[in-house]
Amino acid sequence: MIITITGASGFLGTAMAEHLRSRGHEVRETGRVRLGEACDFTGSECVIHAAHDFGPDSFERNRAGTQAWFDAARQAGVRRQVFLSSFSARPDSPSLYGRTKFATERIFLERGEAVVRPGLVAGPGGMFAKFVQQLGRWRIAPLVAADTRTIAVIALPDLAESIAVILDRNASGAFNLFAPRLLTGREFAGAVWSGLGTTGFSFNVPAGLAIAALRIAGMQGALDSLRGQLANAAGVHGTDLPRFVPNPLDALQAVELGARR
Q1: Which residues in the chain show pLDDT less than 50?
Q2: Which of 46, 47, 172, 176 has its CA 20 to 30 A from that of 204?
């Protein structure tokens, strides 16, 4: 299959491209074209939409830009399209990222295409790598709701394989991809330190205090991420991962392996 991946130079795009090529697919990339700009999908049989603009006030830029690429792909005769969403996607998400992903999902689901909602992807990049770097540097973790299961995780190889199987099966609809057991913040930090071959100390911080501190510091991205994590305690999504990977890595294993250098 000839597959184009938008955002292919990013952490997840690069991993998906490598895995799909190993399965015999021809993978094309969109290069440095910005989300929504003119892009030629001629000749592709599938487009995986992995591009996302993380700039401020990016809700409409992401939704409209992805819509433009979706329409361009349809006009070019592309048969399949897959949108890389997020575990945090929901209409009432307290995070801008979750609301943006949910709104963009509608473009695909209403037209019979596929949406994948991965948890935090454990691997050498993205938000996971930032967490690993911070925990490895400071070896201390001030955590909100430290012992509440709010962290959904998926190993990078399991995500890549799931997407490949979804394409092989010509599956459509929304698929939630994360290890069946959510982690607490304390478990996550401990698994990172174990993977790094070190130890650290974690302690609980009241949610109100953490939110106020992040707001005062102007750390909007971290504040958005925290709000999204706290909302995960509601358990809106069940996992579909075992449908595509019979023996996925346990969440703790995924974090520990992903943190190893």
Answers
A1: none
A2: 176
* Amino acid at position 204, single letter: N
A 10 A CB-CB count for 9 gives: 15
Check if the beta carbon of residue 89 is closer than 8 Å to that of residue 118.
Answer: no
Q: What is the CATH number for 195?
A: 3.40.50.720
Six token digits for residue 213: 């501190």
CA distance 252 to 255: 5
CA-nearest of 68, 90, 19, 77 to 44 is: 77
- Dihedrals φ, ψ of 30, to 5°? -90, -5
Phi-psi region of 34 (alpha: psi -120 to 50; beta: other; left: phi over 0): beta
The domain tally of the chain equals 1
| Domain residue limits at 70 | 2-259
Handedness of CA 67, 73, 74, 76 (dihedral sign): positive
Query: What pTM did the predictor assign?
Result: 0.90
